Each structure stands twice: as structure tokens, then as C-alpha cells.
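C-alpha cells in:
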């Protein structure tokens, strides 16, 4: 069983390292669907009755689009690989901490809380429950009458 699990993990790991990168659909899970879709029309708009010269409007559109494209390309060329390295290290550290610290700590807390829960239940059923049941029986005959004084 252990050998089969190990070979399955090895296959999954090998697959994730050797699979082809999709150069067409670079956001298959659409994690940036709403966040960074910013076009000229999303940022600059002229209301009816206040329009600039058509040539200025077209040049502004082209300038915005080209500068955004070129700036993004330059930033990714300069910072893409270093930031990928940093994010890879960060997520490796997070995975390590989650696997080797968080999950064992949570499991330990669950085990301890089950033990404390049993002790708490024992105390409640042995001492507190009978105490309040006795008080309830003692005062079950008490009747309270409310009168309104005028």
C-alpha cells in the first residue's frame, strides 16, 4: 500500500513538472477575471455633450492601450522570473508550515479538546446537573404572583 501511494505521488509530481504550459489560455481558472481587466473605456469616458476632438480621442485610446501593453511587457520581462522565484519559495514555505506545523497542531488540539470535553461532560453530569435538578425540585412548589398596584 505504501509503495503504491509513493508511486502515485511520484507520478503526480512528475506530471506537474513536465506538463506543457498553455500559451493561449494563461488564466484557465479565471482567477483574474474581474480584477485586472482594465481597458481605456473602463478608465476614461466622455459624457454626452462633452467630447474632445476625434483625433485626440483616438490618439488617447491608442496611447493608453500601447503604453499599458508595453509597460506590462517590460515589467514582466524584468520582474516576472524573480517574482516567480519569490512566490514559489513563499508557497513552498506555506505548504511546509501547513503540512508540518498547522495540521499536526490542529490534530493535537482536537485530541486534547476531546479529552477535555469528556472531563467537562463528566463534571456536568455528575455534579452540576444533579445540583440544579435538586434546586429545581426544591423550588418547584413556589408560585409567584404579580399584582399591579394602582
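Residues out:
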Amino acid at each position: 500500500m505504501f509503495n503504491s501511494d509513493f508511486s502515485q505521488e511520484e507520478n503526480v509530481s512528475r506530471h506537474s513538472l513536465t506538463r506543457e504550459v498553455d500559451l493561449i489560455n494563461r488564466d484557465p481558472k479565471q482567477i483574474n477575471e474581474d480584477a485586472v481587466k482594465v481597458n481605456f473605456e473602463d478608465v476614461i469616458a466622455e459624457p454626452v455633450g462633452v467630447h474632445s476632438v476625434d483625433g485626440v480621442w483616438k490618439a488617447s485610446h491608442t496611447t493608453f492601450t500601447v503604453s499599458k501593453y508595453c509597460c506590462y511587457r517590460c515589467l514582466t520581462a524584468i520582474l516576472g522570473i524573480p517574482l516567480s522565484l519569490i512566490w514559489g519559495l513563499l508557497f513552498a514555505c506555506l505548504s511546509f508550515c501547513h503540512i508540518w506545523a498547522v495540521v499536526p497542531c490542529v490534530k493535537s488540539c482536537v485530541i486534547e479538546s476531546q479529552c477535555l470535553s469528556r472531563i467537562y461532560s463528566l463534571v456536568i453530569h455528575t455534579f452540576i446537573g444533579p445540583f440544579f435538578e435538586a434546586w429545581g425540585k426544591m423550588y418547584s412548589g413556589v408560585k409567584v404572583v404579580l399584582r399591579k398596584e394602582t
